[in-house]
Amino acid sequence: MTRRGLLLDGGMGRELERIGAPFRQPEWSALALMEAPEFVTQAHAGYIEAGADVITTNSYAVVPFHIGEERFAADGKRLAALAGRLAREAADAAKDRKVLVAGSLPPVFGSYQPDLFNPELAGAYLDVLVGGMAPFVDVWLAETQSSLAEARAAHAAIASTGLPFWISFTLRDDVSPAEMGEPQLRSGETVVAAAELAASLGASAMLFNCSMPEVMTAAIDAASKTFARLGVDPQIGVYANAFPSQQDDEEANAVVTEIRDDLNPVAYDQWAQQWAKAGASIIGGCCGIGTEHIHTLGKHRTW
């Protein structure tokens, strides 16, 4: 892959809800995949039209946490393959430019729940996702990783595929960066430790996602300094959410969380310019950041 600045897509779940797809908890974005996959295709196409260079498979909720153990065991691989195929078809339909497909590997025990991580089960769940999506993706994106253990498990699951590995961590955003001192993952582990892990795993990119924009710049700085110290140069990326501060799992997984009304496309673009200046070269959006945001980022991109 040629190293270049990349514009990611935005959040899938809220975009599906916006365009009228079936949408509820606990299935979240997997519901459209199961009941109305044409909406998934529409959402991918909308992000490509908005200018995204990378679209992410709609596989984030294809885990037992969201669809249940029985359904995952019976249908998980098929749903993962469908998510991969829909993204691949949408990307290949963009005839004017190359669009990459990132295979989403979520935290398989739920967002923001590092304490629930089970290494004995994680590998089996991730193997289902990887097996389904591998024929369709250009890069693996382990996203919303709350701990180093989650990240290690994701890397182990994709190691034999030979595809590039991007790893994206979600950050504590319950206190300000000044109060926190050193930026931290949801687990309390430091961004420095996460960057050291990303380097040791040979990740092509390290990103930060599904946290408030206010905590991202400090994390970029910590990662950049760590990579410089280690003599490595993976790309750094950001795709923040539009949620209020969240540190535990309750709202992230149990209800449809409210969206901040101060993160309109112009306001979000101002954050993106700050991230680019700090060293981010992969920028997009997570929950609540939609096609209008991505379109605005594309018009003003400086990375």
Overall morphology: globular
Q: Calculate the mean pLDDT score and round it.
A: 95
Which regions have little confidence, pLDDT < 50, spanning 5+ residues? none
Q: What is the topology, as strand order, of the major beta sheet?
A: 1-8-7-6-5-4-3-2
Alpha carbon gyration radius: 17 Å
The ordered H/E elements are: EHHHEHHEHEHEHHEHEHHEH
Alpha-carbon distance between the two ends: 17 Å
Classify the helix fraction into a percent range. Answer: 40-55%
Describe the fold and architecture:
The chain is 46% helix and 13% strand. With 303 residues, it is α/β, with parallel strands linked by helices. An eight-stranded parallel sheet has the order 1-8-7-6-5-4-3-2. Strand 3 (100-105), helix 6 and strand 4 form a beta-alpha-beta unit. The longest helix has 24 residues, at 69-92.
Keywords:
single chain; 303 residues; alpha/beta; eight-stranded parallel beta sheet
Q: TL;DR?
A:
The chain is of the alpha/beta class and 303 residues long. 46% of the residues lie in helices and 13% in strands.
Layout of secondary structure:
Layout: E1 6-7, H1 13-18, H2 30-35, H3 37-50, E2 54-56, H4 64-67, H5 69-92, E3 100-105, H6 119-133, E4 139-145, H7 148-158, E5 165-169, H8 177-180, H9 191-200, E6 205-209, H10 216-230, E7 235-240, H11 250-254, H12 265-278, E8 282-285, H13 291-300
Parallel strand pairs: 1-8, 2-3, 3-4, 4-5, 5-6, 6-7, 7-8
